[in-house]
Every structure is written in C-alpha cells, then in structure tokens.
Amino acid sequence: MKLKTTALATALIVAGMAWGANLRDEPIQPIAAAKVTNPAMVELGKKLFFDPRLSRSGFISCNSCHNLSMGGSDNLKTSVGDKWQQGPINSPTVLNSSLALAQFWDGRAADLREQAGGPIANPAEMAFTHDLAVGTLRTIPGYVAEFKSVFGSADISIEKVTQAIAAFEETLVTPNSPFDQWLKGDDKALTKQELAGYKLFRDSGCVACHNGPAAGGTSFQKMGLFEPYQTKNPAKGRAAVTGQDEDRMNFKVPTLRNVELTYPYFHDGEAATLEAAVDIMGRLQLGRKYSQAEIADIVAFLKTLTGDQPTFVMPLLPPSSSATPKPDPWAK
C-alpha cells in the first residue's frame, strides 16, 4: 500500500517555519488552520457526510459514527451499524484524520478518499453498495445539479462522492489548543500541573509514538510490549492487511488531539477513562507503573490538546424525488 503525504501536512510544515523563533523545539508541533481551496467541493462533501441516504436503511450517515458534536467519534466501545449490528472495533475520530499516514486502525485505506468508500459498502456499517448509493444520489435533482457545478459534469460516481467527502474531512482540523499556544511561546497557556504532565509524558518516552502535529497517527505499533494486552476483541491489527503473523496486534497509533472528547479508548474501547488509558499504556508500552499523582498530571496535559472544534453551518440536504428509495431502517 502506497501512503500519501497530504497537502495539509505540507502546509503545516510551512506554517511551522512561519511561526519562527518563538516555536518551541518539541516532538509535538502545532496544528495549522485548514486552508480551503475549493469551497464548493467542501460544501458538497459536507452534505454527503451528513446524508443518511448513502446507507441501505436511509438512517445512518458518516456523522453517525463520527459525530462532529462529540469530538468526531461516537463515544461507544464499538459503533452501531445496519440493523443495530454491533461493530467490531472502536470508531476513531475523524478530526485531524488528514494528518494520519493511513486510515482505519489497521491502515487498510491509504487516504481519506479510500476510507470514505469503505463504510458505505460494509454490510456491518452502512450496508449499501457503491452502485446503489450512486444510483440513489442520481435520483436527487439537487445533487445532480451540485455535482455538475463542482465537477463540470452531471455524472455522479463513487470516486467523485469520496473525493468530495475527503475534501470536507480535510477541513476538520482543530488548531489553537492551549498546548499549541504554549508551543508558540505563550508561557501562560499551561498551568504548572499541565506542564509537569507534559514533561513526564515526554520524558517517559510517550512521544516516541505520539509525536508530530496530530500527536500520533504516523506509525503502527504493537500493543503490549512489556505486558500482553488482554482483550476479547478479535481485531488482528496490521496482520489483517499484511497477512503476516508478526503484525498481529500492531495498530495505527491514535491521535491524542481532542482525546478528552473521544472516550472510550483503544481499538476495543475497553479503557473508559483517560486515567485508565494512561495507566494501561504506562504498564504495557513503557513498563512503568505511574502513581495516581503522575496519572493526574499526564491527564491534565492531555486535556490541553483539545483545540478549536470545527464550526460550520449545518447543511440543508437536497430533497428526495419520487424515484429516490424510501428510508426503511426496519427492513428485514
């Protein structure tokens, strides 16, 4: 699988240079605000992100599992899919996902465009097919006109659908967190406890995996280096993609941005609180047993990674026509 560097990541490097001498030399860098170059495509992608008609039931949208009012996640151990199926894995946040080296916990999608098509056709999620989803959109005159305006052609394809959704998702970054303000030279942005927590986080070695603008998302790591991670969740991690047994329990390191909003934690959602997550990660990944005071300090730091949440006008979805399939969440 070829992994791509996003234009947003390049912009972050340029922005970092512009911040100049005031930018502290730390393993985590600030997040830059998104720069929208094609607002019409972003607006179309926003509508598609919120539109449940891309699902078989006509009830589930991208926002169902990546709720933008809840940190871009759903705060469930595993998500609810078609016919109330219990999903197999915790839903990662969509916020700042454009900064990741790949998508999904196992990295099976190289970028946001590839990821956006997955849930639509997954029988345990939105449970449609790409052909049926596109066929539904073609029955909605407002979408036909908007696709023509954005792409220069009234023809709708799954490639255009996922391109538009990805364009919207690339805008879902969360700059200006207290920690970012501190990184850019504001000594008053963090309290003594928050700063102590960051120094403990950094000096303990957490930044070996949680680094860069997203404080994670840029590598795959084995969960359970010093102790095996005990879970009933069947997810294999990267092994599901590579077929190699040595990749079992290797998962994409999650971003820590907005982590106070995206509970529960880990691929199986078994850590209900940040305190529990810090304790487990200390023991399993670092071979270190943090005291309650140390955990409190690290958690205080982690909460400083919550940035400005995306704000936008909720989309008004174009109305269905008489040819549009009717929603039926109770279909057998």
From TrEMBL:
Q: Name one GO cellular component term.
A: periplasmic space
Protein's UniProt name: Cytochrome c551 peroxidase
Molecular function in Gene Ontology: cytochrome-c peroxidase activity; electron transfer activity; heme binding; metal ion binding
Signal peptide (UniProt feature, chain positions): 1-20
Name of the gene this protein is made from: ccp
The cellular location(s) given in this protein's UniProt record come to:
Periplasm
Q: Which PROSITE patterns match?
A: CYTC (PS51007)
| Species of provenance | Sterolibacterium denitrificans
Q: Which UniProt keywords apply?
A: Electron transport, Heme, Iron, Metal-binding, Oxidoreductase, Periplasm, Peroxidase, Signal, Transport
The record lists heme c 1 as bound by 62, 65-66
User: What kind of modification does the protein receive after translation?
Assistant: Binds 2 heme groups per subunit.
What Enzyme Commission number(s) apply to this enzyme? 1.11.1.5
Q: What region holds the Cytochrome c domain? A: 40-148, 192-306
> Where is heme c 2 annotated to bind?
206, 209-210, 281
Cofactor(s) for this UniProt protein: heme
Q: Does the keyword rRNA processing apply?
A: no
What is the UniProt remark on how the cofactor binds and its stoichiometry? Binds 2 heme groups.
SUPFAM superfamilies in alphabetical order: Cytochrome c
| Record's keyword annotation contains Iron | yes
From the broadest rank down, the organism's phylogenetic lineage runs:
Bacteria, Pseudomonadati, Pseudomonadota, Betaproteobacteria, Nitrosomonadales
